[in-house]
Amino acid sequence: MHQKILIVEDEEILRDITKEYLVNEGFEVLEASDGEQALLLFQEHEVHLVILDIMLPKVDGWSVCRRIRKTSNVPIIMLTARVDEDDTLLGFELGADDYVTKPYRPPVLLARAKRLLESRYRLNETSKDTLKRNGISVHFPSRTVEVDGKKINFTHTEYEILSYLMQNQGIVISREQLISKIWGYEFYGDDRTINTHIRNLRTKLGNKSKLITTIIRTGYKFEEYL
């Protein structure tokens, strides 16, 4: 079955160009020109990735992202016409996994979409299906996480960061290592971007948040013991 991508973009020409690139790569594409239509399509179809513009008629991209995140951890790429780091941070706080600044080159967007899809839907490369550390269980085939037996919904990026830190328990992981592992290309965000994801992750971990410690001016470490 072809992976299905939902493009939410009110500029028809840009939407058509993006769709053409995706279709040529074998993806099935759904199109929405406003936020309201996007939410309806998302409810009606099994969507594997969302490409979401911020400035949309009826329901803006922020609201669409927020509402999708209430029920799904599907990868989301935000599109923004403004080079504003605060916009980017807000998107990450709402659960977006990546962002692309407009105007963009379709091959670049395609590469980022593929990267997210490959990491989201691949089976774990290790021999074990489940990794357990200090009351946190990561089940790789289903990409689910339980904390003290309770299932917690993490976004794609939060899941990637947590599983990577847990697989390297006791080892300091630099911000540069995280960026390379999670995004896999030159990333133009600053430290606040990584900090935002870590903050969201800690909030969801509750009393287990202390397991992720900040190493000043270096990065992060998943502790061996509470």
Q: Could you provide a short overview of the structure?
A:
This protein has 8 helices and 12 strands.
Folded structure, characterized:
The longest helix has 16 residues. The protein has 8 helices and 12 strands. The strands form 3 sheets. The chain has a 5-stranded parallel beta sheet with strand order 2-1-3-4-5, with helices on both faces. It folds into 2 domains: 118 residues, 3-Layer(aba) Sandwich (Rossmann fold); 93 residues, Winged helix-like DNA-binding domain superfamily/Winged helix DNA-binding domain (Arc Repressor Mutant, subunit A).
Which percent range fits the helix content? 40-55%
Helix segment count? 8
Low-confidence spans: 123-127
CATH architecture of the largest domain, please?
3-Layer(aba) Sandwich
Report how far apart the termini are. Answer: 44 Å
Describe the biggest sheet? 5 strands, parallel
Q: CATH homologous superfamily of the largest domain?
A: Response regulator
What is CATH's topology name of the largest domain?
Rossmann fold
Number of strands: 12
What is the CATH domain class of the largest domain? Alpha Beta
Write the layout of secondary structure elements.
Layout: E1 4-8, H1 12-24, E2 28-32, H2 35-44, E3 49-53, H3 61-69, E4 76-80, H4 85-94, E5 98-101, H5 106-121, E6 130-133, E7 136-139, E8 144-147, E9 150-152, H6 156-167, E10 173-174, H7 175-182, H8 191-205, E11 212-215, E12 219-222
Parallel strand pairs: 1-2, 1-3, 3-4, 4-5
Antiparallel strand pairs: 6-7, 7-8, 8-9, 10-12, 11-12
Helix pairs in contact: 1-5, 2-3, 4-8, 6-8
